[in-house]
Amino acid sequence: MFILFLLCSYRVLRPCTQKVERRLQIATAMMRIAQALNNREQYGCWSEIFDSISRLGTAGMSDDEQISDPQGQHGITVYAPVFRNPYFNELFSKIDSTHGLEKHLFVRVGRYRLPRICGRERIERSPPANLPSSYYQADYLIAMDKGLVEKVPIALEETALPP
User: Fold this and answer.
1) pLDDT < 50 regions, the chain
2) Which end of the chain is more exposed for a tag (fewer CB within 10 A), N or C?
3) SS3 137
């Protein structure tokens, strides 16, 4: 019985490097388009998004877990890093949906996108050094000050979150 459950229900973690690369490619493509259209506002927006993705790197990306249950339901559970400001969940969701909204700019490749569900658990990992404090959850910054989590250097200059 237990073996049958294992065969029917499996979880596959996907690497964060793919997310970083795909999001950087989308931001780069949108920057080029904005530059070609001489749209400085859009160029600035996508440039800030590109910068924030670069700064967060793989440590700032959420982990995905593909779920298949015995009834044949498939989906992806998304677990965000504990340190990351929740604003990035919404921003990354918008970036990921850009290729669907701008179908004339992006060619669809691969299988259909599985439904995503926000996981309640958070991924415990150290943030990259020198992130602006706005990139952190407020509770995480407090925990760093109290020594409850690993203290990493925070950028001296404050950077607003990308639009």
Assistant:
1) 1-13
2) N
3) coil
